[in-house]
Each structure stands twice: as structure tokens, then as C-alpha cells.
Amino acid sequence: MALGGEDHEDVFSDGEENELSRRLKVQINEKDLLCVNGCGFYGTPQWGNRCSKCWREHQLAEKRSQDYAKNRTLLGFDNFQERRKAATESRTLTIKKIFRSPSMLASTSSKTRQLSPDSKAAREVLTDFLVMSLPTAILQEITRQVKYAVMKISELRVTPDELSELVQSFYQYLIDKLSQNPFFNQDKCKVKVEDVISEVEKYICVCCYNSLFCASSDEEVADLSLQDRIRSLNWVTAGFLETKLDFSRQTVRNLLDDAIAEMIDINSHRRSDEKLDCLVRCSHKIFEALKESGAPTSADEFLPVLIYVLLKGNPPLIQSNVKFISRFALPSRIMSGESGYFFTNLSCALQFVQDMNYASLKMERSEFEAYTSGDLVPPLNMINCGCNQVIQSYLLCLISEKCYVDREKQ
User: What is the CA radius of gyration of the chain?
Assistant: First the structure.
């Protein structure tokens, strides 16, 4: 990748060729992005390479196994019946208990929640959609169910994974309930059950965001720790990560800046679909940058650049955003399609950064730690000069000056 012709090769260190040969090459097979259960949907490393549906089924099976083991232990007690009753009553409330018909709970007292401007706007959007699309009876039923679900989500004190299971169960409960309604089976019906659930999901994500996002203090600490780690690994973007990007081109650098901006913008949205839209736009910018660089726009070239964008941008609370989408987005958004594909790649990129060490970068531990601590500065080479606009401008000035001198000599 030339920046200004052979006359300026002496600017770089003699060991550049050796450094280029040990640059980290990231490769992933398309098949590795799919669920290990062979269902055909995308999986993520955080779910043991399962899709969201298979992951929840796996969790359910694990819970059943744990409950079975616990019950076997309880069988050894003399007062088994009393203990079984106590254990049953103390278990996490089931979806039927938590989201049972609001009409049965008129006497339930609860403080009226003051809606934020975002929540009020989301309520208006949902209300307008329901009024324009559905008969009054169905509209009122959905409104009651959603209102009660939002109230319970704000009141519950359960783990993030349990909260995810409850919200996903509510989506499925509503899907099943609406699917049985004759209205949606009419040929003249222009709205689908999936459309209604999509609007409900958007409303819940916005209205319950403070309860759903970064729901655990431990997760917030882990995210801040990851942000520190990414900051300490920023030096990897200075030529240690193999990509096919042509950093000498201003257009490529601008597209990468746009991709980084979209990645950072993920955290500014509450709805899962809007977060995914940011990721999709970010990914499109990456493919445009590859195209401008004359590189293949393939999965093999995409993932390394996504890792580069992640390291360079260090987006705030990115791990919490990925978990939020995993837990509370409709499965259809992340199991298939364009957003599902890019989300799986982002999950892989995050896992890769978390696992990155001296061995994966093919260097000595002491060298890796020196770069990470800032004691050692990455050597000057063609790659990081191409990334640095100041150096790039300086080199262009040198080239222009040389051309001017050559013309004067003629």
C-alpha cells in the first residue's frame, strides 16, 4: 500500500516487512456463525454458539436438571411435604402468575409511574398504531396486557436472565393469544400479529429501559472494565491487525469514521431495532470502505474491520447493549436476516477482543504488556502512517515539494 512512491520508503523502519508478516489475521467460516444445533439461525459465542431460541431451551433444560437434583436432595428430609411446599412457593413467579389477566387484579395497588418524555412519545406511537390497525376490543385487550406487563417489569427484583425469560415469554404469550383471534385470519386483514408484537416490543424497550438495560451492577462494572481493556488495546489498530483497508485514501478513512460514529450511536437509543439499525449502517460503511480499498467485500474481510472499528471507537457500554438486544429484542430480529448476521459478527468481535492476548498477536508476553501499559509505542510503519492524517498530510506535502523541485530542475 503506497502513500507516495518509492522515494519515501526510508521514512519507515527496516523491520517493517517482519512486522507485517506477524500481523493478526482474523478468519471465520460462515458456518461458524450459525447455531450449533443446526436450526439454520445465527448463534453467538455468548450463547455457546446457539441462537436465542435454542439458548433459552438450553437454559430451561439446565434449570429442570437443577430442580431435579434439588428435589432428589429434598427427598432425604423427613418433612418432605412441608419443604416441597415452601420450595414451590419461593420459586420465581411463572409467566402465568406475573402476566395474568389485569382484569383479575383490579384491587392491586400500585403507584402511578411518571412517564418520561421518551416513554410518552412511545406510548403515543403505539396507541396510534393500535387505533389505526385494530378493532376496539382487541386494542383494549392489548393495552391492558401491555400496561400490566410494564408495571410488573418495573416492580420485579429478579436476575437479568430471569427478566429476559419473562419478557420473551410475554411476547410469546401475546403472539399465541392474538394468533387465536379470528380477526387476524381474515383475508382482508392488513395487519399481522408480527406487526403488533413488533410495536409492543418497541414500547416495552423504551418504557422499561431503566429496568432492562444494564440491569445488574456487576454487569455495569464488567462493561466499564471492558471499556478500559479496549482503551488499553487501541495500539492494536496501529498495524497489528490485518485488514485489506487502504488507509492512504481519504474516502476510506471518512467511511471508517462514519462506521465508528454509528457504532458509538448504538448506546444513545432505547429501542432494540434502533440499536440494530445503527449496527447495520455501521456494517454497510465497513463494506463501502472495503470496496473503496479494492478489497473483496466478504465475511473474511468484514470481521477484521469490525474488530478494528470496535477497538478504534471504544463504544460506551457496548457489552450491555449487546446483552440488552440479546435479552429483550424479538428473536426474529437477531436470529436471521441482515441485522441478525451483523449482530452475530459483533458478538464474535466482542468475544475476540475479550480473549485477545500476546499469543493471539504472536508476540512475547513482555512486549504485549509493554504496549498495553503504554510503556512501548507502536513502531512507525506504512499502516499507522496511513491512519494518521497528520503524518499523511506531511507526506503529501513532501511529495508535492519534491514534484515542484523536479519541475524547477527541468
Answer: 27
Same domain, 21 and 48: yes
**Measured between alpha carbons, how far is 311 from 231 in angstroms, rounded to an integer?**
7
Helix (H, G, I), strand (E, B) or coil at 78: coil
Same domain, 61 and 138: no
The DSSP element (H or E) to which 149 belongs, if any, is helix 136-155
The per-residue pLDDT string of the chain (410 residues; one tens digit each, 9 = 90 and over) reads: 333 444 444 433 444 445 444 555 665 666 666 776 777 666 666 657 676 667 666 666 665 555 545 444 444 444 544 544 444 444 444 555 555 545 444 444 445 567 789 999 999 999 999 999 999 999 999 999 999 999 999 888 888 889 999 999 999 999 999 999 999 988 888 899 999 999 999 999 999 999 999 867 788 888 889 999 999 998 888 778 888 899 989 999 999 999 999 999 999 999 999 999 999 999 999 999 999 999 988 888 899 999 999 999 999 999 999 999 999 999 999 888 899 999 999 999 999 999 988 888 888 999 989 989 888 887 765 555 445 554 455 555 666 666 666 666 66
**Phi/psi of residue 54, nearest 5 degrees:** -65, -35
3-state secondary structure 5-59: CHHHHHHCCCCHHHHHHCCECCCCCHHHHECCCCCCCECEHHHCCECHHHHHHHH
Dihedral sign for Cα atoms in the order 32, 37, 42, 44 = negative
Residues 331 and 310 in one domain: yes
Task: List residues bridging with 24 in a β-sheet.
Answer: 241
Residue 35, helix vs strand vs coil: coil
Note whether residue 238 is domain-resident. yes
- Which amino acid is residue 234, in one-letter code? N
CATH number, domain with residue 356? 1.20.1050.80
- 272 and 394 inside one domain: yes
What distance, in Å, lies between the first and last C-alpha atoms of the chain? 29
Nearest CA-CA partner of 323 in 161, 202, 187? 161
**Which domain does 385 fall in, by range?**
1-83+218-410
User: Do 20 and 128 belong to one domain?
Assistant: no
Strands (DSSP E) contained in 201-359 are none
Is residue 97 one of the residues assigned to a domain? no
Distance CA 301, CA 295 (A): 8
